[in-house]
Write a structure and sequence with these properties.
single chain; 2 helices; 12 strands; mainly beta; 6-stranded antiparallel beta sheet; Jelly Rolls
């Protein structure tokens, strides 16, 4: 029975960036996402952080809704400053080492680590490896990254 269900999923039509606005299925990859103008390793907000971001699923760039997936990169000692937002977020560490603050906790993270960040929990991440960039995937159950209100704890600035 499971085999039939899985086989049936592969028969659904797939869509790329040029397809319908809200598809049933959307398939993308880092190479395809990087071909969207201004998307590949874009510095997210240079006044706030040098974090470089590539969005894979974002309703502003892809024909998707209710899910944001992206990859982010930080070099050694670069930091995405302490902030919070009302949306739940997850990180998956792909490569490199990082230093995170999650609420009151300080933790080291590395490849294979998955981090769940509940709503409004202050968090920050920094590259901690001199040898390679910290690369991590992030997800939100939201449609557009541009609609998430980041509240930075140091300056209380809001990015929207």
């Amino acid at each position: 029975m499971i085999r039939v269900v899985i086989s049936a999923l592969f028969l659904l039509p797939t869509y790329s960036h040029a397809s319908a606005k809200i598809p049933q299925v959307c398939v993308t990859n880092l190479k395809e996402a990087s071909q969207i103008e201004g998307n590949y390793w874009t510095v997210w907000d240079p006044e706030v952080s040098p974090v470089r971001v590539t969005l894979l699923f974002d309703q502003g760039l892809t024909p998707t809704q209710d899910l944001i997936i992206g990859q982010a990169a930080l070099s050694y000692s670069e930091t995405l400053p302490l902030h919070r937002h009302q949306e739940t977020e997850t990180y998956r560490i792909i490569s490199g080492q990082g230093q995170m603050q999650l609420g009151e906790q300080e933790i080291l993270v590395g490849p294979g680590d998955y981090i769940y960040i509940p709503p409004n929990v202050p968090h920050q991440i920094s590259g901690a490896s001199r040898d390679e960039d910290l690369i991590f995937e992030f997800t939100f159950a939201a449609s557009k990254l541009s609609e998430i209100d980041y509240i930075f704890m140091g300056s209380q600035a809001v990015r929207d």
